[in-house]
Amino acid sequence: MSVEIISHSVAYRKRIMLEQGVRTLVAPVEDVSYLSAETGGAMIFLKDDMHGYVGESLTQLFAELDPAKFARATRQFVVALDAIKAFDAIPARRICNLVLRDPYADLQIQIPNARKKELMELLY
Hints:
The protein is mainly beta. 14% of the residues lie in helices and 43% in strands. 19% of the residues are buried.
């Protein structure tokens, strides 16, 4: 009796379509820094400081992204792991600020310290 091994490969999203007024921008997923939840969809922020709207929920988009490259930081934010620059502790509180690389270094996403630990494990 032989055992057949079946390999299931998951196809993650390769491109994302961003609405920018009358223009629809096609961007490779590798160019995404972070995603934020918006009413009726999500905003996508690219590494080159471009951004646009998509009519899909953050939960839908996150399910289509490679978990080796993206993580849910909070209910409102999904971040590209390679866009994470630092974690800044907030003394006397059980939270920290997740700091992203330029051009989004001014954005600080508050996350619980437990989530920081989970994200740091993904970064190894």
